[in-house]
Design a protein that fits this description.
single chain, disordered N terminus, mainly beta, 14-stranded antiparallel β-sheet, 14 strands
């Protein structure tokens, strides 16, 4: 870690869209508004889920955004994803979940699971590190080619400590674009989709 006694202010612009999420209801620290847009590839193990049950899926992608607030000692911090000092942008957002999907595809689907975000730039009161991370739970509802997402249990870590624990990260809306679709409802197979969207603070 490098000690830097300077205040750094960041402006972040997401390509194509920008949305705001607020980590609220502090437990050990407080966090202020940031901006975040996400995108990636989602894989459903089976579509539709046999017998109307639940199946397992994964997501791998990235999030461009930031969060700022006060750590448990009352010191100001900021975490930025992806790390602007990294030589290249890496996949830093991952999730695993269980889901229920019906056929035909125009019907609704739902999922619940956990997510993790890593590789962030951290400035905690001038102490700089590159281990910014966030983890939590999420749920979503798919209606056609749109997904509505809610998140909870967000924990932000960096500089070797927990920076903030939160009840909610926010809510979001995203686009769901399947790359493979079974020819008919009896043709059960894996499904891959490109998904992207952003977070907003719930009312």
């Amino acid at each position: 870690m490098v000690r830097e006694r300077r205040r750094v202010w960041w402006a972040w612009i997401g390509a194509g869209a920008a949305s705001v999420f607020v980590l609220a209801c502090p437990q050990t620290a407080s966090a202020a508004p940031g901006v975040g847009v996400w995108q990636g590839t989602l894989t459903l193990g089976a579509f539709p889920c046999p017998g109307g049950g639940t199946c397992s899926g994964t997501f791998s992608g990235s999030l461009a955004g930031s969060i700022a607030g006060l750590d448990a000692a009352g010191h100001p911090f900021v975490v930025i994803w992806p790390d602007p000092s990294a030589p290249s942008t890496l996949a830093d957002l991952a999730a695993s979940f269980t889901y229920s999907e019906a056929c035909p595809f125009g019907a609704t689907g739902g999922a619940t699971g956990t997510f993790s975000l890593s590789g962030g730039y951290v400035d905690d009161d001038g102490v700089v590190s590159h281990d910014g991370a966030m983890s939590g739970q999420f749920g979503w509802l798919r209606v056609g080619l749109t997904v509505a997402i809610s998140t909870s249990g967000g924990v932000v870590t960096g500089a070797g400590q927990t920076l903030a624990t939160q009840q909610t990260i926010g809510e979001g809306v995203g686009a769901f674009v399947p790359l493979t679709v079974p020819g008919n409802c009896l043709d059960i197979q894996s499904l891959t989709a490109e998904v992207s969207g952003g977070f907003t603070q719930p009312d």
